[in-house]
């Protein structure tokens, strides 16, 4: 395979790669046939664990900074067990329309990769309508590095150009494989099915910022054959950063994949995991490679108990979908040349660095040089796009899917609004379509380094103009933290990050 750069990814074209699909057999599923009325489903999965022997050009891993990290080509290295990284696809046929969810075990999907997958599926192949196609990543921190933009592998790991080219070769292959998975699933004859929804809870994590919001809800959507009630597949979720394995060099779908495996073994149906608003929520961890199985079993127990003993609400009626995009403004207006000049000077000063041995190896220096280059060549971003998607089923469920790493308070505030207007069952997903930044609240932005060293806020060192040392904004390659309301403002001011996100979600729900 030739070397592929990001420009090649955006240029498009079909990947000449072979996808080896495997099918799990879960009991005696009814024969598939086209549906005339009501729901019908098709579903598949694919192992997307990068392997050199299968043509992957890169084993570089994402999820942790700030040094190079790659998986060993030997899956048995150190005799550490791991779970495969999986892509799942579910196509829900609703009369004459199709709604498709693509679920991926990767840490993040940058915008250009998201748009290329969407272009191929929606525009080039015409498999599904734009708002009817949803992509969600599990955010496993033991997954492959995808793309070279946000985050930038040069910033986060200091990789050489040849290594970045290798990442883009793997990204190209990844795109081709998941598009083929969607195509195969959409074109299969679906099985008439009925859907039902319920929620439970599981104690698998805490708020790493020390804030009161701990999102322990576990949403569960069952898909059963209409003919005989056979359980076909289960969609379930949780809101806890998949970081409990530890930072090592082994691909692993983390507690998310462990829970799915346990559920499949016990219930005989394919299980799809979806991450919630986990920006400040973290799975319990003690740097133990066995911890994903421990937490996965705890989450699976909650799901299985609910499926076997709980009360579910039928999910019926036509599905209405909407996909919008808002833009998140930076704290400073970097469309103002005077502001940009100040910003540039701040980054020039940062390149001199603290009086620290080895400063040349610091991500802060690499990031500063890239910011100066962007300013000088006129490519500095003015804001960050944020897709938000809503699927409203006729009755029984609404799914609200937010891009990026949204923190837990948004879950709380959106749920409160939904209760006020009588939305009914609401499943809030994060990490949807693209993952390019944290989405902090006013409280986090006001506090800066006062909460979790400013990691989620994106600034520290008393300077809210530039991305903070070791912060999320620096890791993702942005120049500045996002804009908050004026300190103490309540409710959030209209031009703030918090208000922009909440207003968009409220509009979709109502």
Provide keyphrases for this structure.
nine-stranded mixed beta sheet, alpha+beta, 510 residues, 12 helices, 19 strands, four-stranded mixed beta sheet
Describe this structure in words.
This protein has 510 residues and is an alpha+beta fold. The protein has a domain at 6-19 and 36-315. Helices cover 30% and strands 22% of the residues. The strands form five sheets. Strands 1, 3, 4, 5, 7, 9, 10, 11 and 13 form a nine-stranded mixed β-sheet that branches. The longest helix is centred in the middle third of the chain and has 27 residues, at 161-187. The model is unreliable at 1-36 (pLDDT under 50).
How confident overall, as mean pLDDT?
91
Structural class of the helix and strand makeup?
A: alpha+beta
The value of Rg in angstroms is: 22 Å
Helix content: 25-40%
Q: What characteristic shape results from the CA principal axes? A: globular
| Beginning-to-end CA distance, first to last residue | 48 Å
Q: Hey, roughly how much beta strand do the residues contain?
A: 15-25%
Q: Main beta sheet, described?
A: 9 strands, mixed
Q: Number of DSSP strands?
A: 19
Number of helices: 12
Give start-end ranges of low-pLDDT stretches.
1-36
